[in-house]
Design goal:
disordered N terminus, globular, mainly alpha, two-stranded antiparallel ribbon, 378 residues
C-alpha cells in the first residue's frame, strides 16, 4: 500500500512538473466542453423547433415578471460579495454604489466573456483604482468573493445531496448512498474549515502575498450570501418551468447548483451549452421542447440582458471619465499659460503658483467629476 501511494505521488509530481496545473485545468475544461457538445447533440438533434417557439410564446407575462424579480434579487445579493470583501480587507470607506458597480459589471461581463479571473479582475481594478485601491487589494477582493461563492455553492450542494441524494441520480448515475456520501463530505469539509478558522490561523498565501481570510462568524455570513444568491437565481428557473410534471423546489435547487458548478468549471463563456445540457439531463421528466424554452428564457433574463446593461453602464462611465478629463485639461491650460506670462516675479514664486494652480484645478475637477460619474466619488 505504501509503495502504491509513493508511486501515485511520484506520478502526480511528474505531471505537475511536465504539464502544470494551468494546463491540467485547461484540459479539464476542454473535456467538459467536448462532452457537453456531444450530449447537446444527442439531446437536441430531433427536437421540434416549432414546439420550442410555441412554448416560448405560451409563457405568461406574470411568470416572466416574477422570474425577473427573482433574478434582480439574485443580482442584489451578488453585490454583497464585493461589499463583504471590502469590509474584510478594511476598505470600509468605499460606498455601496461603487461596490455594486464593480460587482455587477465584473461578474456579468467576465462570466459572459469567459476567463472570468482575468476579465473580472481588470474591470474591478478599473473601477476601484479611482478609490485608491491597489492591485493587491483587488486581488484580495477577487479571492474573497470567489471564496464566498464556493462556500455558498458547497453548502447548497452539501445539504441537497445529503437530504435528497436521488435528485442528481439522472446526472451522475451513482447510487443514492454514493450521492449522500458526497453531500456529507461537502458538509464535513465546511465544518472542518469552520473549526480551522476557530483556531485563529487564518493567514494563507506566500511570503510576498498573504491574505487573512474572514473569521468563523464572517464565514457564516459568506455562506448566507452565497446560498441566498443561488436560491434566488434557482427560483427564477423554478417559476419558468412548466407546471406539469410537478417538481419540488429542493430537487430543482440541487440540480441547478450542479449545473452552475459544472458551467463555471468549464470556463465556457456564460456557461453556454454546458448549463443547458446538465439541466436537460437532470430533468428528463419534462418535455425537451418546453424545458429548452424555459432555459432559453432564463438565459435571456440572467445572462443576455444583464450583460447588455453592464456594457452600457461601464461604457457610459468610461465616456464620462474621459470627457471629464478633457474638460479639466481645457480649463487648466489657459490658467497655466496666463501664469507663465506674468512678469516681474521670481522664478520660484512663479513655479509655486503654477503648482498651486494645478492642485486647485485638479481638486476642482475631482469635485465636479464626483458629481458627474455614475458611481459618485473618485
Amino acid at each position: 500500500m505504501q509503495g502504491a501511494s509513493n508511486l501515485l505521488s511520484a506520478i502526480a509530481s511528474a505531471v505537475r512538473k511536465r504539464i502544470g496545473w494551468s494546463s491540467l485545468t485547461g484540459i479539464a475544461s476542454l473535456a467538459i466542453v467536448a462532452v457537453t457538445a456531444v450530449a447537446m447533440y444527442k439531446l437536441l438533434h430531433d427536437i421540434d423547433v416549432q414546439s420550442v417557439i410555441a412554448a416560448l410564446k405560451a409563457q405568461p407575462p406574470h411568470t416572466l415578471l416574477l422570474a425577473s424579480g427573482c433574478i434582480a434579487a439574485g443580482y442584489l445579493m451578488l453585490t454583497c460579495y464585493d461589499v463583504f470583501a471590502l469590509r474584510a480587507i478594511g476598505r470600509t470607506a468605499i460606498p455601496y454604489r461603487a461596490a455594486a458597480l464593480a460587482s455587477f459589471t465584473s461578474y456579468t461581463i467576465g462570466h459572459n466573456f469567459g476567463a472570468t479571473v482575468v476579465t473580472a479582475g481588470v474591470i474591478r481594478y478599473r473601477v476601484y483604482a479611482f478609490w485608491g485601491l491597489r492591485i493587491r487589494d483587488v486581488a484580495a477582493i477577487a479571492f474573497i468573493t470567489s471564496l464566498t461563492y464556493w462556500l455558498g455553492n458547497a453548502s447548497v450542494l452539501g445539504v441537497g445531496l445529503s437530504a435528497i441524494p436521488d435528485a442528481v441520480s439522472a446526472l451522475d448515475r451513482l447510487p443514492t448512498a454514493a450521492n449522500r456520501f458526497i453531500g456529507l463530505t461537502l458538509l464535513t469539509g465546511l465544518a472542518g474549515y469552520f473549526l480551522w478558522l476557530l483556531r485563529g490561523q487564518r493567514r494563507i498565501g506566500r511570503s510576498n502575498w498573504q491574505i487573512v481570510v474572514p473569521g468563523p462568524r464572517s464565514m457564516l455570513v459568506q455562506v448566507s450570501i452565497g446560498s441566498l444568491e443561488l436560491v434566488f437565481v434557482a427560483l427564477a428557473t423554478y417559476v419558468l418551468l412548466p407546471p406539469q410534471p410537478a417538481l419540488d423546489f429542493p430537487h430543482l435547487l440541487t440540480i441547478f447548483a450542479t449545473a452552475l458548478l459544472v458551467g463555471v468549471t468549464s470556463h465556457a463563456p456564460g456557461s453556454l451549452g454546458v448549463m443547458e445540457a446538465v439541466m436537460l439531463l437532470g430533468l428528463p421528466q419534462f418535455k425537451k421542447e418546453e424545458l429548452l424554452a424555459c432555459l432559453l428564457t432564463f438565459r435571456l433574463l440572467y445572462f443576455v440582458l444583464p450583460f447588455a446593461a453592464a456594457v452600457l453602464v461601464l461604457g457610459v462611465r468610461e465616456f464620462r471619465s474621459v470627457f471629464g478629463g478633457i474638460r479639466l485639461r481645457n480649463r487648466l491650460l489657459p490658467s497655466l499659460y496666463g501664469l507663465r506670462r506674468i512678469k516681474g516675479r521670481p522664478r520660484v514664486e512663479t513655479a509655486r503658483g503654477l503648482a498651486q494652480a494645478h492642485a486647485d484645478a485638479v481638486r476642482s475637477g475631482h469635485r465636479r467629476a464626483r458629481e458627474e460619474t455614475l458611481y459618485g466619488d473618485h
